[in-house]
Amino acid sequence: MSYQLNFHDLVPYLPELGQGLLVTLELTLYATVGGILLGTLGAAARTSRSRPLRLSAGIYVELIRNTPFIVQLFFIFFGLPAIGVKLTAWQAGLIAMTVNLGAYSAEILRAGIEATPKGQWEAGRTLGLTRFQIFTRIVLPPAFQRIYSSLVGQCIIVMLGSSVISQISVEELTFSANFIQSRSFLSFESYLLTALLYLILAVFMRRGFGLLASYVFRSQPR
Amino acid sequence: MMQFTDWDILRNLLLAARWTLLLSLIAFIGGTLFGLLLTFMRTSRRKPLVLLVRGYTELFQGTPLLMQLFLAFFGLSLLGIDVSAWTAATLALVLFSSAFLCDIWSGCIESLPKGQWEASRCLGLSFFQTMRYVILPQALRVAIAPTVGFSVQVVKGTALTSIIGFVELTKAGTMLNNATFQPFKVFALVALIYFMICYPLSLFSQFLERKLNVSGKH
Fold first, then answer.
1. Which intervals hold domain ABC transmembrane type-1 (chain B) (predicted)?
2. Which of A68, A70, A191 lies nearest to residue B67, judging by beta carbons?
3. Which residue range is the domain that position B53 belongs to?
4. DSSP H or E run through A64
5. What is the pTM of this model?
6. The complex's ipTM?
């Protein structure tokens, strides 16, 4: 092989890559918070006693889990304006990520909720707690602890999936990589470096969530 | 200018969906073969092999599939191989699937009690005999539901090949949208077709999980 990899000429473009990285981080942060909130609501609906609630949450979860993220993104960004919902690319990207993570985390969290021993609901009722109180104070915290690592895995998958948002011209990490390769003609090197950044980001997210867990779940027996 | 009726849109999307199906099938079969090899390497307990496979799975699970597609597309041409979008897409998806399948399967194998290995050793079975007669028959039962579940990820993964210019369902959707200016209808239909491919697979996986739920039923 005669080709020499040339990373040296990428150095002037590093600020662009940093900019992109920040946008990816920002999107991931908002989508993680929003997605987990949405997922909690979804899981509550899926385990509720009301049939229409269960059904609509089920349709939401299955629709999202069985279609590709890029199609959801295109539907939100190109399709919704046709019925009068106008969004910027950044908003569309964030909504797509949030809705996507919401469905997956609802499904993950549902498994955690269903693993709650029945006696805990009964004990809660005996103590005179309302259904809402039992759900938020007794059922939810250990359920989160049970499914924490799959939830973290899903957040990382959504972060990696956000690279697709470059396709609707949100200037995140992959967009920067596309820009750099079109300027420098060093396509392989640009994408290799970017892939490495994603890998580092994924590792750091796992670490960060691990630290968060040891803080949040410190008082609970395991 | 050509006018597209709703039927034209649907017909063209369904024609393009064949390529989604074909690519998924090839990626899944290729991923299965290569993933099996990786699984054997990972369960072999030879340190360098295990580390190598672990690094491989980490790499493919820690980077976006889109990056893998780009790297396959531009990397192969660096090697002097003239790549079509089809080749790059196949290569990237096979490598991607093999990493995830290896992870699923080695998880299943490791979930079996250690005593099974020890008992086989006592009976004088070799590594391959242990695998063939003791481990795999049991691991297969545990593995089948998550494997079918992963096939959904493969189908959804093929949607990204539209970005490197492979004309499958998603690419056909964007092209039809450019021709008809009916994004709502076109992308809703695209999503619906994906759903009709993936949902039966999801249901089948859930069914298998319930039916083959082996934990504590021996």
1. 17-205
2. A191
3. 6-212
4. helix A51-65
5. 0.91
6. 0.90
